[in-house]
TrEMBL record:
Gene3D superfamilies: NAD(P)-binding Rossmann-like Domain (3.40.50.720), UDP-galactose 4-epimerase, domain 1 (3.90.25.10). One of its GO terms (biological process) is lignan biosynthetic process. It comes from Quercus lobata (Valley oak). Transmembrane segments: none annotated. Residues 416-433 have a biased composition (Polar residues). GO terms for molecular function: oxidoreductase activity. Residues 4-310, 313-392 form the NmrA-like domain. The keyword Acetylation does not apply. This is NmrA-like domain-containing protein. Residues 405-433 are annotated as: Disordered. Signal peptide: none annotated. Keywords: NADP, Oxidoreductase.
Length: 433
């Protein structure tokens, strides 16, 4: 078996970091996550931390502002990946200092996860942050630390679930694309790139031991995901069988909005300007002298396309039952992102373990929950577009489901059964199978 480097992720409890930690552990790398003391005891993060532990991740207590803790962590690994948030980018000089002192690191991937750095075309505040990311590169090179710079381009979860409309939750997965009106940034013709976070993590982890990415920039530009805003909207329109009303936020209006908006809204708007108006994700070539493209380098990775991403996500409640298992299997086979609600006892029931294993092997995501546990139910349902209930005939009451809070953006389509795509929550009440 090929040598698997030991990997430390700093910022592994963050939005993109958690995918990197999970992928590193899944790919068999001895995986370490630097976790701050307060975070380890933060109830909001406790589930994530527990899931890290159960995947065999070693948690190391530390903080980028505590030099000794960093050096101690860095000394235990071969590769350091930073996924710290935008506010800590400049302070990655502390990580560089720790790597230099430890002297054992074979590769450092600083927190970039962005686009090629054409600062000339961006405006503040993102222009400033791009400058800071560039200065971190120069510090790494000045210290002679081996590196890979990862340009992931856009995170799908930040745009595709809602076309950039303000998110109601923290993860970006809690709203659906609009079904009536859409505001297009710019003229909508600029090409952009959005990749699924899991794929970004896959490419990142593949790169760490790859000599072809050593001291190179790794661009993630899967060809099927290079689309314009207009093309993305048109993919969605085909799926819902409806034409959206379009308005356009043109550059001068957007620039005015950036100037007038408080932080951090102005940052988000300046990113939209760089992405959708100036074409920062696509307006430069991958320079072969120091750049490589991930989907070319790793053709074996079957990345998710934006088209697939917009497919409905289906949750089956009762999927481990007689008819439910066929529904789950068919949903996965048809290419839908497929979820099955599984009770804790069922997950550990030896009689059901084969079925559960087969779900997993077909890419079904198992979500723990119970219809008598309202919170777990809300949490799982929030992750999907369509719910199919195949609860046994002795469970006829579906009050637990129907007491769910309506999500504005999805409330309307549920009223219609004209299109099978819209059979969303009707399935939980009138469409018991
Ligand atoms: N391309 C895109 O679409 C896109 C979108 C968003 C972000 N990004 C980029 O992705 C990168 C990561 O951003 P993100 O939004 O994923 O970050 P995030 O969710 O804000 O997470 C930041 C992480 O850094 C950790 N951290 C903060 N202060 C720390 C400290 N003093 N010591 C150690 N760890 C500390 C946090 O730990 P705690 O859990 O303890 O707080 C958390 O794990 C950034 O470079 C950002 O610019 C790209």
């Amino acid at each position: 078996m090929a040598h698997k480097s030991k990997i430390l992720i700093i910022g592994g409890t963050g939005y993109i970091g958690k995918y990197i930690v999970e992928e590193s552990a899944k790919s068999g790398h001895p995986t370490f996550a630097l976790v701050r003391e307060n975070t380890a005891s933060n109830p909001e993060k406790s589930k994530l931390i527990e899931s890290f532990k159960s995947s065999g991740v070693t948690l190391l207590n530390g903080d980028i502002y505590r030099h000794e803790s960093l050096v101690r962590a860095v000394k235990q690994v071969d590769v350091v990946i930073s996924a710290v948030g935008i506010q800590q980018i400049a302070d990655q000089v502390n990580i560089i200092a720790a790597i230099k002192e430890a002297g054992n690191v074979k590769r450092f991937l600083p927190s970039e996860f962005g686009s090629a750095m054409d600062r000339a075309k961006a405006v503040d505040p993102i222009k400033h942050h791009l400058g800071v990311k560039a200065s971190i590169r120069r510090s790494i090179e000045a210290q002679g630390i081996p590196y890979t710079y990862l340009l992931s381009n856009g995170f799908a979860g930040y745009f595709l679930p809602n076309f950039g409309i303000a998110r109601t939750g923290g993860t970006g997965r809690f709203t659906a694309p609009p079904r009536d009106k859409v505001e297009i940034i710019g003229d909508g013709n600029t090409k952009v790139i959005f990749s699924k976070e899991e794929d970004i993590a896959t490419y990142t982890i593949k790169a760490v031991d790859d000599p072809r990415t050593l001291n190179k920039v790794l661009h993630i530009r899967p060809p099927a995901n290079i689309l314009s805003f207009n093309e993305i909207v048109s993919l969605w329109e085909k799926k819902i069988g409806k034409t959206l009303e379009k308005t356009y936020l043109l550059e001068d209006q957007l620039l005015k909005k950036i100037q007038e908006s408080p932080s951090p809204l102005n940052l988000r708007l300046s990113i939209k300007h760089a992405t959708f108006v100036k074409g920062n994700l696509t307006n430069s070539e991958v320079k072969t002298s120091f750049g490589v493209e991930a989907s070319e380098l790793y053709p074996e990775v079957k990345y998710s396309t934006a088209d697939e991403y917009l497919d409905h996500e289906i949750l089956t409640i009762g999927g481990t039952g007689y008819i439910g298992k066929y529904i789950v299997e068919e949903s996965a086979k048809a290419g839908h992102p497929t979820f099955a609600l599984v009770r804790e006892n069922t997950a550990s029931n030896p009689e059901k373990s084969k079925l559960i294993e087969s779900f997993k092997s077909t890419g079904v995501t198992l979500l723990h929950g119970d219809i008598y546990h309202h919170e777990s139910l809300v949490k799982t349902i929030m992750q999907v577009d369509v719910v199919i209930s195949t609860l046994g005939c002795w469970i006829t009451r579906t009050d637990s489901c129907s007491s769910l809070p309506a999500r504005e953006s999805r409330a309307e389509p549920r009223k219609s059964l004209s299109n099978p795509r819209d059979w969303t929550f009707h399935s939980r009440t009138s469409r018991q199978i």
